[in-house]
Amino acid sequence: MAAIPFEERKRGPIAVVKAIFFDAKDTLGYVDRPGHLVTYKPSTQTLLETVGGTLGCRIGIITNLPKNVDSAAGLKMITDAGIAGFLDPAGFITNHDAGADKPSAEIYRYAAAKLGLAPEQCLFVGENFLEVLGARAAGMQAELKPCPPGREF
Hints:
alpha/beta; five-stranded parallel β-sheet; two-stranded antiparallel sheet; 6 helices; about 35% helix
């Protein structure tokens, strides 16, 4: 009988990731003024090219928008930042569309369902620890992206 690698014993089996969802603000870039996202250069583009190309994963964004900013305006911000072309056509998810804010598990389940996937087939990457916990509570794999000190919660 083959030995089970230590990492698998420690964490359990890992589902195959078919889609990776990112938070927008402070994960892919920063907002320098209302409605304007400045992506981290060149790392955001390289990241999205690698995820979509080399890894072959579908890409989405899960974001909380203020009450006075609708989903169309949020998508325009992503488009103007030059990253909308990397997204799966159904991959832009807002709290308004999902009917729940991050870190509620419901928004992550909604995002997976929009892509026709189980949460276990998705990975969420964000700089906010509570949002990472919310994704994990929904059944997604999740990773915390390092952020400047004091901005992780």
